[in-house]
Amino acid sequence: MAKVIGLGNALVDIMTPIENDHIIEELGFPKGSMQLVDAGKSNEVVQLTSHIQSTLASGGSAANTIHGIARLGMETAFLGKVGNDHFGEIFVNDLIKSKINPRMFYSNTNTGRAVAMVTPDSERTFATYLGAAVELSPDEITPEIFSGYQLLHIEGYLVFNESLIEKAVKTAKDAGLLISLDLASFNVVEAKKDFLTKIVKSYVDILFANEEEAFAFTGSKDPEEALQFMGSMVDVSVVKVGKNGSFILKNRQKTKVDIIKANPIDTTGAGDYYASGFLFGFLNGLTLKQSGQIGALLAGKVIEVMGAKIPEQTWDLILNEVEKIKDR
To answer: Over the stretch 167-212, which tens digit does the pLDDT of each residue have?
Structure first.
């Protein structure tokens, strides 16, 4: 069976349900965006939300995807950097608990954290302090890290560290790995469109985007047109369109996948877990339809809980459903 390694920002998510948009507006954040903040701004966000009951969980887009793939039964690893602190312990112990091989580096800087402010409409707005995560350097990326793996999955949030991404994708390609990239956030795409385009054209095999990210990347408001544009650069392109499901394109053949019925509470991790399910199916030789259906299954289950962790008892149901999808 194929083995997958993820590369991303090692963060601890602070999941914070808020009653309305007032705090987001006070902070001046676009609703639904991911805002990079410094330690001072992060502390301000924590103070503004200190009266609200929050929960902690290891997070980061690529790490979420790797967690999902591992729970589906594939061998995985995660590459990132954390601090020598309590949050760093939380992050690494969570990897080990999920049987993910931690390929971690350590720093004296605090572990990164992302305050996820979740409004009643299930939308989430992130204030992300990268901390130690951003200190992962190109010099720490070696061919040995990718030995034995078949796919490298990268989150778009890493594009602010251009030299790191360039070293990682080149080293992985030279080692014979496929590369998948999740564009991650529309404002990240807007800020780094030219660099992303260069990396996608040169190195990426599988490209994931939601509707807003696809528009930011391609300039096309129509998701299916964006799908075609993305598909001209990569082998497999995927555009997720919320309640309308997802579109997948390979070899000019388009596949439509519907969502599953769900009771959404928080959309955090939906795109990350869709990628988990899709990559699991794709790497195991399933059809694009089947792969997308497994992605939709995981996405539908994670939005029914607060945060990007699917409850233990739900995984038995998921694994049973995956077997049914395989038999279709």
So the answer is: 999 999 999 999 999 998 898 999 999 999 999 999 999 999 999 9
144 Cα distance to chain centroid: 24
- Collapsing DSSP states into helix, strand and coil, what is residue 114? strand
Secondary structure class of 40 (helix, strand, coil)? helix
Cα 203 from Cα 321, distance rounded (Å): 33
Token pair 């149901």 in the structure block, residue: 317
- Whether 307 shows a pLDDT value over 80: the answer reads no
Q: Which two tokens stand for residue 137?
A: 């350097």
Beta strands in 8-111 (DSSP E): 11-17, 34-36, 55-59, 75-83, 100-107
| Cβ–Cβ under 8 Å, residues 95 and 77 | no
Q: What is the DSSP string of 157-211?
A: GGGGSHHHHHHHHHHHHHTT-EEEEE---HHHHHHTHHHHHHHHHHH-SEEEEEH
Q: Backbone dihedral region of 285: left (phi > 0), alpha (psi from -120 to 50 degrees) or beta?
A: left
| Per-residue pLDDT at 58 | 83
Overall CATH class of domain 3-327: alpha beta
- What is the pairing mode between strands 151-155 and 3-7? parallel
Q: How confident is the model at residue 328, as a pLDDT?
A: 83
Q: Which of 234, 320, 317, 241 lies closest to 282 in space, CA to CA?
A: 234
CA pair distance 111, 83, nearest whole angstrom: 4
Number of Cβ within 10 Å of residue 201's Cβ equals: 11
Q: What angle do CA 69, 151, 143 make, to 5 degrees?
A: 125
What pLDDT score does 138 carry? 97
Confidence of residue 3 (pLDDT cuts 50, 70, 90): very high
Lowest mean pLDDT among 17-21, 238-242, 298-302: 17-21
Query: What average pLDDT does range 125-139 have in this prediction?
Result: 93
3-state secondary structure of 308: coil
